[in-house]
Specification:
about 40 residues
Length: about 40
């Protein structure tokens, strides 16, 4: 697993919402990927 270091300055939301938003944005852009093979 690679380390993920979100740039919280990309969001003006509270930290917990910013993290959720950044996870979504990075999943959509391909920065993060979901590995469904267990």
């Amino acid at each position: 697993m690679k380390d993920w270091h979100p740039d919280l300055s990309r969001s003006s939301s509270p930290r917990y919402m910013a993290i959720a938003d950044l996870i979504e944005m990075d999943l959509r852009s391909g920065v993060l990927a979901v590995d469904l093979l267990y």
